[in-house]
Design goal:
With 566 residues, the protein is α+β, with helices and mostly antiparallel strands. The chain has helices at 41-44, 111-120, 131-135, 141-152, 159-168, 193-196, 217-221, 326-335, 338-348, 379-388, 407-420, 432-440, 468-472, 489-500, 504-520; strands at residues 19-25, 52-53, 69-70, 90-94, 174-178, 181-185, 229-235, 239-244, 262-268, 283-285, 298-299, 309-316, 354-356, 397-402, 425-430, 450-455, 524-526, 528-530, 533-534, 542-543, 547-548, 554-555, 561-562. The strands form 7 sheets. Strands 12, 13, 14, 15, 16, 17 and 18 form a 7-stranded mixed β-sheet that branches. It has a 5-stranded mixed β-sheet with strand order 7-8-9-1-10, with no helix packed on it. The protein has a 3-stranded antiparallel β-sheet with strand order 4-6-5, with helices on one face.
């Protein structure tokens, strides 16, 4: 597999400093890492650190571009350095010296802080979207999360109660031997475990965070940083301002920089609002988004690139009785004119390769398959299936979509297709935060039967679980992207087989089989596969633009250098 090199324009002579402004989705604010989605990793990187991280890459054909490197850890455990046991289930991490919290005493970051981060991702108020990955991998973490959730059903959700439970219970497979030594034991060997450790959910967390409910505005206002920047002030849902962290030592951080004096994030709700306090025309840089692409984004070698996205697809809320008969679901799959949606993307995203999708897992990801059980755009066959199911036109289905990206255009096109096929459908747009909440808690967020969604891989090697497990597995712990409530014992068994597989090719075969079965069941309707895109190489007045391939080719904001006059 080959991927075209990424060659930024040469940087001009500009000194360090200035203000960098970034436009970011509301739900990607770099605040509490315990609740942040994987798509927020480029922002969380500004102020938090994990055991491992990613490095920027100008040529993603280099294997190091997609392989985690040590961050809080001195080394990535392996059998060569005696950090990985012979069973491939026991990892020993030694903490890097010189990493400190932004506290009055500039306290060192310890192994206990990493354990606290693992616990906090399981909190029952705002569990991490990545929790399902860790729950199926780290020994005892699933039991810890489910027990905490059960306890929370008859306990208050205030910070003191949450902290008391967290600190009185342990995760059997995550513990500190001392301040400098951390042990993580797995329930099964995992080809992708080290990649998971680069996610925001695996961030170290200081004891000061116990005083606040995870994900709350109060927690965001009192964050303690160990990265190059710290949050100085923010207005929830509108803007965040970060300044250099005086406790950060460049010598103890091999993979981050702090080129700008200040980073301002203007948070967009997806409905065209992106507010910020007035500034003196700071340099601005876009980042490669998690959903929908950017008009100015550049494709990364469409045919050979790692990490194509499933963008867009239709999600069915299978909790709704309208979907009980599989023929009604099949009618949806047959009604959508995927070719028309592809033309829509080509008009609005010229130059970014897209392919009509029949499979759930896109190219450049583990378990990809080209099979397509449903041809595109066959409304006559869809009507026949509805008639055989005895389905009569009734109350219109609700199809929710985000305001951002091409969400409105895709939703209206799909709604028209479904209506023509005999399934009257009404498209309902939501601001990004409300849309995310509707997917996260469909039973309480209002009635919807369909949603326009997108899925971007959270890492690029051995990554079948970021599609098949996250989107399909019926799991007792919250998190993941199975927003439609799909549950199929056969698919769950295939997912477990993939997770247990010792060789990548065996895992890929199981991921492929699980995805094929779910698409045949119409758990989701894949529409397009989109090539990865990167932000423009040289936005005006900004140098040092380099991508982080495993983070959706987003810009490394710590290295972006605003133009400052000499």
């Amino acid at each position: 597999m080959t991927v075209a090199p990424y060659r930024p324009e040469p940087a001009t002579a500009r000194r360090r400093g200035g203000v960098l402004r970034v436009v970011a989705p509301t739900d990607a604010a770099p605040l509490d890492p315990s609740c942040a989605p994987a798509s927020a990793a480029p922002f969380v990187r500004l102020h938090t650190r994990q055991l491992v991280t990613w490095q920027t890459a100008r040529d993603v054909r280099d294997w190091q571009a997609v392989t985690p490197v040590p961050d809080l850890a001195l080394e990535v455990p392996s059998t060569w350095n005696a950090g990985l046991g012979a069973s491939h289930r026991s990892y020993v991490f030694h903490m890097r010296p010189g990493v400190r919290w932004d506290t009055p005493d500039r306290r060192p970051v310890t192994a206990h802080d990493v354990v606290r981060g693992f616990k906090r991702m399981c909190n029952p108020v705002r569990p991490s979207p990545s929790l399902a990955y860790f729950a199926s991998t780290v020994r005892g973490l699933a039991d810890f999360a489910t027990a905490w959730a059960a306890e929370a059903t008859h306990r208050a959700g205030d910070a003191a109660t949450l902290a008391a439970y967290q600190n009185a219970h342990e995760i059997p497979g995550a513990f500190a031997l001392d301040d400098e030594t951390l042990v993580i034991e797995l329930a099964r060997p995992a080809l992708d475990f080290v990649h998971m450790l680069a996610l925001p959910a695996a961030s170290a967390v200081p004891v000061e965070h116990d005083a606040f409910v995870p994900g709350s505005p109060e927690a965001a206002a009192h964050l303690r940083a160990n990265g190059p920047y710290r949050v100085r002030r923010h207005r929830p849902g509108e803007w965040v301002e970060l300044v250099r962290n005086p406790a950060w030592e460049p010598a103890a951080d091999p993979y981050r920089r702090a080129e700008a004096d200040r980073v301002e994030l203007r948070l967009s709700d997806g409905a065209g609002r992106a507010d910020a306090e007035p500034t003196d025309a700071p340099a601005e840089v876009p980042v490669a988004p998690a959903v929908g692409g950017l008009p100015a984004a550049e494709p990364v070698d469409g045919d050979g690139a790692l990490g194509w996205a499933l963008d867009p697809y239709l999600l069915l809320n299978l909790r709704d009785p309208v979907w009980v008969d599989p023929r009604v679901r099949q009618a949806v799959a047959l009604a959508v004119d995927k070719a028309a949606v592809a033309d829509l993307y080509r008009r609005h995203r010229p130059g970014v390769p897209v392919r009509i999708a029949g499979s759930l897992i896109p190219p450049g990801n583990a378990g990809h398959d080209t099979a397509d059980p449903y041809p595109t755009g066959d409304p006559a066959r869809a009507r026949e299936l509805l008639a055989s199911a005895g389905h009569a036109d009734g109350t219109p289905l609700v199809l929710i979509h985000p305001h951002s990206g091409l969400g409105p255009e895709v939703a209206h096109a799909c709604a028209s297709d479904l209506t023509r096929a005999g399934l009257p459908t009404r498209a309902v747009g939501l601001a990004d935060a409300a849309y995310t909440e509707a997917l996260r808690a469909p039973a309480t967020a209002g009635g919807w039967q369909l949603a326009v969604a997108a899925r971007v891989p959270d890492w690029l090697e051995h990554n079948g679980r970021v599609f098949a497990q996250a989107m399909l597995q019926a799991t007792p712990v919250p998190g993941g992207a199975n927003h439609g409530g799909y549950a199929a014992p056969e698919v769950d068994a295939l997912i477990e087989r993939a997770l247990d597989a010792p060789e990548p090719w065996r895992a890929d075969a199981a991921w492929r089989a699980a995805a094929e079965r779910a698409v045949a069941d119409v758990a989701v309707v894949p529409i397009l596969h989109r090539a990865p895109v990167a932000a423009p190489r040289r936005p005006d007045r900004v140098d040092g633009i380099t991508p982080l391939p495993p983070q959706g080719y987003a810009v490394d904001l710590t290295a972006a250098r605003p133009g400052v006059d000499e």
